[in-house]
Design brief:
Elements: E1 3-8, E2 12-19, E3 23-30, H1 32-47, H2 62-68, H3 70-93, E4 104-112, E5 116-124, E6 138-140, H4 149-163, E7 165-169, E8 179-186, E9 193-202, H5 210-216, E10 224-229, H6 237-242, E11 246-259, H7 265-270, H8 276-310, H9 317-332, H10 335-342, H11 346-376, H12 393-398, H13 412-434, E12 436-438
Parallel strand pairs: 6-12
Antiparallel strand pairs: 1-2, 2-3, 3-5, 4-5, 7-11, 8-9, 8-11, 10-11
């Protein structure tokens, strides 16, 4: 539905019509005085650029400029009318353009020195974000992970794994508990498609998909076996649908087992702490901070879904296109995404692009909502808050690398993305602080999805990243 509003001053009378996709249209009548002023401006502009016999540039009489350069003068006159009229309109309407380089289309329908001019402008505007009702927000309570002795020991073990030395095993076949370095190729395509290369997995029924565990037990180094990659029998319907069976070839490259360093002062010093005691104290603080962040992240996801579903408003088409193009460009730079796209049929590719567009629209919508909240409630946001360099290797293990950068090295584009992320998180946290927290609605959480290797579930921010990480298809 379009909206119209009328404005009037001594120089212009116009209406604004807001159309879908954040398009604004001005229909304007300009006064004769404005048109006459624009005419004089156009004559001066042309005069400075042309030469006439007997006159220096800019000194030729107006009547000669009009006579000799009628066509360029007419073009310059209409442009001057349009520029001056639009400035006068904006003084009254203050319609926010979509960026400083927004394209403004105009048409001078008619113009004369005696009667003035009539013009039509069309341009994209900033979205009109509705007010957010703070009294109507409900969020389901999120259970925070407990940081206990078991969690501490599991994390310390991950840290040991990070610093471990790998001892090769060559005199026997691989068995339960060993770590194998493997390749997996999808062989139902020609040529075969690489799914995993030099990927290290622990041979464990609880940590590997059944098909892989069945194939690998007893294999010798250099041996290859063919089988069917498929979800486990207890996988959800969604997982089975998302990962249909594929013919694969598994090749065992090496068998090796970790030699873990002791948990002592020497290990602590590698992590940037003085001794084991300080390492444990700092680790407990980081784990608690991480648990808080994970809980807050779940609340943020809830608030984002609520905002997108509850508050609908138009978005500029060009902005959505730019966001989609940016996301596709980022994904195409990822070799794993390229490989994934190559394995898709036409319908799957269209669905993937549609998903990118949907995610892009959600991001743009949330950006404008969050910016509106920050401005409306005067929430302070400082550029210094996005500059979060870590101080020790232990802190680095818990940091989100997308938020860590060197201020001198970061590009303007990356800084802008980091600032947008900060604005969003501050707005989210403000809304969470105003929300009513209610008990969960009793939905049973789906079992965590298994990867091809059924790797052990890990939090989004890994406590101790392994030296070599891999992705399974």
């Amino acid at each position: 539905m379009t909206e119209q509003k009328e404005y009037k001053s001594d120089t212009v009378t116009f209406t604004i019509e807001r159309k879908p996709e954040c398009i604004a249209e001005y229909k304007v009548k300009s006064s004769p005085e404005l048109v006459q002023k624009a005419r004089k401006s156009a004559i001066r502009s042309v005069s400075k650029e042309v030469s006439l016999p007997g006159f220096r540039k800019g000194r030729a009489p107006d009547h000669l400029i009009v006579k000799k350069f009628a066509e360029p003068l007419e073009e310059r006159w209409q442009k001057a009318i349009a520029d001056e009229t639009f400035r006068e309109c904006q003084k009254l309407a203050h319609t926010p353009l979509l960026g400083e380089d927004a394209r403004i289309s105009f048409n001078v329908d008619k113009h004369s020195l005696d009667e003035g001019a009539e013009l039509t402008y069309t341009f994209e505007t900033e979205p009109l974000v509705p007010e957010i009702d703070l009294t109507n927000i409900e969020l389901e309570e999120v259970k925070r992970e407990t940081v206990d002795a078991k969690k501490m020991e599991e994390t310390l073990h991950d840290i040991q794994m990070f610093f471990c030395e790998w001892e090769k095993v060559s005199d026997r076949g691989i068995k339960e508990g060993d770590h194998g370095v493997i390749d997996v190729d999808i062989i139902e395509t020609e040529p075969p498609q690489k799914a995993l290369t030099n990927a290290r997995f622990q041979v464990d029924k609880k940590k590997m998909a059944k098909w892989m565990h069945d194939l690998i037990i007893g294999m010798k180094i250099g041996e290859a076996k063919e089988g069917i990659s498929e979800p486990d029998p207890d996988a959800s319907k969604e997982e089975k649908k998302a990962t249909p069976p594929k013919k694969v070839r598994l090749t065992l490259r090496s068998v090796e087992n970790p030699k873990l360093p002791p948990i002592d002062d020497a290990l602590a010093q590698k992590l940037g702490t003085k001794n084991e005691k300080e390492m444990r104290e700092n680790l407990e603080k980081l784990l608690n901070k991480q648990a808080d962040e994970h809980a807050q992240r779940e609340y943020r996801e809830q608030i984002n879904n609520y905002l997108v579903e509850a508050y609908h408003f138009d978005l500029p088409k060009s902005l959505l296109q730019k966001e989609t193009q940016f996301r596709i460009k980022q994904l195409v730079a990822d070799p794993a995404f390229q490989q994934k796209m190559m394995g898709m049929n036409e319908e799957e590719r269209k669905a993937a692009i549609k998903d990118i567009e949907t995610q892009g629209e959600k991001a743009v919508r949330l950006f404008y909502i969050s910016r509106h909240i920050i401005q409306e409630h005067k929430i302070p946001v400082s550029p210094s808050e996005v500059h979060q360099e870590v101080k020790t290797p232990l802190e680095a293990m818990f940091s989100d690398q997308s938020d860590v950068y060197n201020a001198k090295e970061q590009s303007q584009e990356q800084k802008a993305i980091a600032m947008s992320r900060l604005i969003l998180s501050k707005a989210e946290d403000f809304l969470i602080s105003k929300a009513k927290i209610v008990p969960p609605k009793g939905k049973k959480k789906a079992a965590p999805k298994k990867t091809a290797a059924k790797k052990k579930a890990a939090p989004k921010k890994k406590a101790a990243p392994k030296k070599k990480t891999t992705k399974s298809s």
